[in-house]
Amino acid sequence: MSALPGWLREVEGGVKVEILVQPRASRTRAVGEHDGRLKIQVAAPPVDGAANAELLSFLAERLKLPRRDLAIVAGETGRRKTILLRGVDPATVAGALAS
Known about the structure:
Number of domains: 1
Strand content: 35-45%
Largest sheet: 6 strands, mixed
CATH class: Alpha Beta
CATH architecture: 2-Layer Sandwich
Radius of gyration: 12 Å
Helix content: 10-25%
Number of strands: 6
């Protein structure tokens, strides 16, 4: 197995992903690694939790996980976030988000 990216780490019960969010982008997409985190652009503005909701929906769809299996565990109001993904293995996450 190849090494996991630095923005991804396995924890008990799932995986934590370190993310840098860029709100108000032209479209929602993962754009690669930036400063040791996975950079994700979201189209929603950072108002009333809209960017967070769009980020979690994007991740759930991309990873084919139910939305309830994702949680923001750090960075709720900032651009640097840590997301907990329950019930998924690191290799699956790396493959789905690094491409």
